[in-house]
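Hi team,

As requested, here is the filled-out complex form for the nicotinamide-adenine-dinucleotide run. I kept the field names the same as last time so the parser does not choke. Let me know if anything looks off before we queue the next batch.

— J.
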Amino acid sequence: MSYKVKDISLAAEGELLIDWASDHMPVLGLISKRFREEKPLEGIRLGACLHATKETAVLVRTLEVGGAEVILCGSNPLSTHDNVVAALAATGTKVYAWREQTMEEYYWCVNKVIDHTPAITMDDGADLVSTLHSKRTENLKTVKGGSEETTTGVIRLRSMHRNGALKYPIVAVNDTPTKRMFDNRYGTGQSTIDGILRASSVMLAGKVFVVVGYGWCARGVAQRARGMGSHVIVTEVDPAKALEAIMDGFQVMTLIEAAPKGDIFVTVTGDTKVIDEQHLRVMKDGAMLANSGHFNVEINIPALEMLSKGKRRIRPDLDEYKLKNGHKLYLLGEGRLVNLAAAEGHPSEVMDMSFADQALVAEWVWKSKDLKIDVHDVPKEIDDLVASIKLNSMGVKIDKLTDEQKKYLTSWREGTV
Ligand SMILES: NC(=O)c1ccc[n+]([C@@H]2O[C@H](COP(=O)([O-])OP(=O)(O)OC[C@H]3O[C@@H](n4cnc5c(N)ncnc54)[C@H](O)[C@@H]3O)[C@@H](O)[C@H]2O)c1
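And here is what came back:
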């Protein structure tokens, strides 16, 4: 069988969601129209390891109308939408994904994508690329290039390249302005709050909300939490980012100082064990813990288990841990990215830009000759095009540089007058 999903009878429900997302993704819509006419991806097998959401389905279909054969698996054991993948499977996409996978099942799906010998990879977190480079090296020879969607994936890929392990060129879609400035900040900002609310339904106004990290994603989360009336504390390890948080009006302190104060904690660092045993020990009774970074290692869950004498599931995506010290702590979405585990991921409008970048980068990689093995930036023309189409879709016009201004901005001759 060319797919494995939880329940194919959910296809009609999924189809409605894909339609809804598609109506909110005008940039991808325009690319899809051109791809349908030009078929720039004709004959390519494209292996994608992405959060299998309604927006991803719109991307998959854009690539398919462009001529690609897409093979999809999820990029997280808890982020797949079963109705969406059922809709994709029912219309012929090779898809291996369902929600709530064991690690074994998760990597079985990743390996199914590799079995189809993709020529291009599209990854979110670099699990597909790292599996190819470690356990399936015989399949590397058919791969021409790839792209990476998220910060953690780009960090892993750059590390592979530094160690001489990377065997084909990859484009860091995450790092391009039309992705990172919007998806990471506004997408993660809104959808993290959405995930916390869907999992817990608590009131945010008046709560002490601790955001761990102040990078692109965390900034969005801190701003949105403040907008909901929370008292936001930021913790950081980077002095400049900490200063930025202060000047943006947040309280900044160490996490060990913030730990007994916080009602809600959200980690968004891409780092490991940022909330560790010593923090868990001093947290308030009833504090809630969520993560919106890529992997479920930011909160030290084994330490939480070790400090607890019991655990029960209160409702989907909300687990209560009874600590030996008498306190209860609540873990949201099993410590996996809360916006995807407990909600629907980023809004379609923002994924419109990220996935427009992905579609155009796939075309660019496929057409490129002699792209060297490296982690490449998205070409500026692609980024500018995506931003321009998005502005256009909003009915917004902007000014253009005059020839005199272009000359002035590239010259050193003119100074004080
Ligand atoms: N939830 C989502 O949908 C989503 C979307 C995009 C990215 N991400 C993921 O979110 C994570 C963050 O991405 P980003 O683009 O914001 O990265 P970033 O590099 O812009 O920011 C990360 C920040 O975390 C800080 N940090 C690292 N270790 C820390 C620690 N121990 N304590 C406090 N701060 C610490 C760094 O100094 C940095 O400022 C990554 O794992 C990324 O893949 C998630």
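Two things worth flagging: The chain has a mean pLDDT of 97. The pocket of nicotinamide-adenine-dinucleotide is lined by residues 150-152, 184, 188, 212-218, 235-238, 241, 268-271, 274, 292-294, 337, 339-340 (CB under 6 Å).

Thanks,
J.
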